[in-house]
Amino acid sequence: MNAEKKGTKPPRPPLALILVLCLLMAVEVLVRQGSDYLLSFTEKVMRGKKAWIAQPQEQPIDWLIVGDSRAMGLDARVLSDGLSSSGHEIKVYNLSLPNHGVQSYALLLKLYLKHHSPPERIVLSIAPVTLMAEWFNADPDASASTELHRFCRMYSFGEGLSAFDRSMWLKLALAKLERLSYTLTYRKQLIDVWRDKGPVSRLSQQQVNTMLKRYNGGVQMGVGPAPDAPTIRGSAIYKHSFAVNEQAVEAYLKFLQLAADHNIQVTVVHAPMVQAVYDKRMDDGSYQRYVDVIHRIRQQHPQVEWIEPLWTAWEARYFNDPQHLNSDGDNRWTRELVELLRLL
């Protein structure tokens, strides 16, 4: 027995594990040095706007635009110039974020109010439909998971606790863990960068920040080929009709209550739809279901202003894809909003 103990070899260090960790550390250093090339345009916009929130502003923001990627192209400078009158300037900033929905905007507003005085008005351009950005209900679990991956890059566990209920926070935590596995290998980021050949994705963080500063938080995506009929009909936004998500409605109400608690007037606007999507939504009953949801919200928050008409249809030439306006469309929508908001 003693002989067996004397002959036992000491455990060897896990050389393979040590080698892998060393390689990961080396990759980490290289990636951090070239992080601009591994962040998507969406992530750079989120980082730029979160950094802007944390900075004190020389002049308080009077009106804040809050919305998803459909509202990112609104030119806050034009809105500010158009809404200001002699002797009374209205400072407008576009805080719209891609892939963010009503549930995450409650957190965004809380973070904003930590660093800034409450704005006089929030122009809200996001529909009370699903948990995150999508206003149709194609695959709720997959959609929410995709958006959470981007959301969890912007906010910490602690910040998420202040906005999400336990169920959604656990989903956020799982998404963060999954993102950690991606971060260790950089597999997904490298694949995304390789596939995304667009010029916008090649902008550095500094260039994105310069764009955000130039347009008071807005972005200009340029004018590409308009989506043709097969592209529109093949898109998810065309295939799936409007469906109500009760968690999103509850989050919408919480956002409106947060604004009311700080005496912020909320005015709701809606981005235009491409004509083919609009026609299908009107035919399949989506519009009436949407109006029913709005009626419920109005009963609890009668102080909220809703710009009519709720839905509008534009020609495809104003769009870069079946959902998003191009720069011509953004400029047209900005000008029209100036005229509509002047009437308030």
How would you describe the overall organization of this protein?
The chain has 344 residues and is of the alpha/beta class. Helix content is 54%, strand content 7%. It contains 16 helices and 7 strands. It has helices at 2-7, 15-33, 41-54, 76-83, 102-115, 140-154, 157-161, 166-185, 187-195, 205-214, 229-233, 236-239, 246-261, 275-283, 286-300, 327-342, and strands at residues 63-67, 92-94, 121-125, 265-268, 273-274, 305-306, 313-314. The strands form 2 sheets. It has a 5-stranded parallel β-sheet with strand order 2-1-3-4-6. It has a two-stranded parallel ribbon with strand order 5-7. Strand 1 (63-67), helix 4 (76-83) and strand 2 form a beta-alpha-beta unit. Helix 4 (76-83) runs parallel beside helix 16 and helix 6 (140-154) packs across helix 8. The longest helix is centred in the middle third of the chain and has 20 residues, at 166-185. The chain starts with a helix and ends with a helix. The relative contact order is 0.14.
C-alpha termini separation = 92 Å
**What is the element string, with H for helices and E for strands?**
HHHEHEHEHHHHHHHHEEHHEEH
Instruction: Work out the helicity level.
Output: 40-55%
Strand percentage? 5-15%
- How many domains make up the coordinates? 1
Which sequence of strands runs across the widest sheet?
2-1-3-4-6
The backbone outline, from C-alpha atoms, is globular
Question: What is the architecture at the second tier of CATH?
Answer: 3-Layer(aba) Sandwich
Low-confidence stretches: 130-144
Give the beta-strand count: 7
